[in-house]
C-alpha cells in the first residue's frame, strides 16, 4: 500500500509538470505575464535557482542522514513519510521552474532548471 501511494505521488508530480506544459503550449493559458518587469523576473529566476540548488541535492542525500536512516530502519510508516518528503523536495523546483518558464515568457534559465529537476526522478523510482 505504501509503495503504491509513493508511485502515485511520483507519477502525479511528473504528470502535473507535463500538464502545465501542455496547457501553456496549446494556448489555453497565455504565457509571458511576468516578463514585463525585469526586477520581478530576476527575483523569480533567483528563487528557482535557489530551489534547485537546495532541494535537488538534499533530496538525493536525504536517506544518507543518520536520523533519517534510523527512522526508516525502525518503522515502515517512517519510510513512507521520508520518501514523500523526498518526492516533494524534487517536485517543488520542477513545478516552480516549469511554471516560471512560461510565465516569464519562455525564460531559458527556468527551462534548464526544470529539465535539471526532471533528471533526479530517474534515480528515485519508489520500490520496496
Short descriptors:
128 residues, mainly alpha
Structure in a nutshell:
The protein has five helices and no strands. The chain is an all-alpha fold and 128 residues long.
Write the layout of secondary structure elements.
Blueprint: H1 2-25, H2 38-61, H3 66-74, H4 76-103, H5 108-118
> Strand-and-helix sequence, N→C?
HHHHH
Name the shape in a single word. elongated
What percentage of the residues does DSSP assign to strands (E)?
Answer: under 5%
In angstroms, what is the radius of gyration? Answer: 16 Å
- Major β-sheet, in short? none
Counting DSSP H or I runs of 4 or more residues, the number of helices is: 5
Structural class: mainly alpha
Terminal Cα span:
11 Å
Structure in words:
The protein has one domain (2-120). It has 5 helices and no strands. It is mainly alpha-helical. The model has no long low-confidence stretch (mean pLDDT 94).
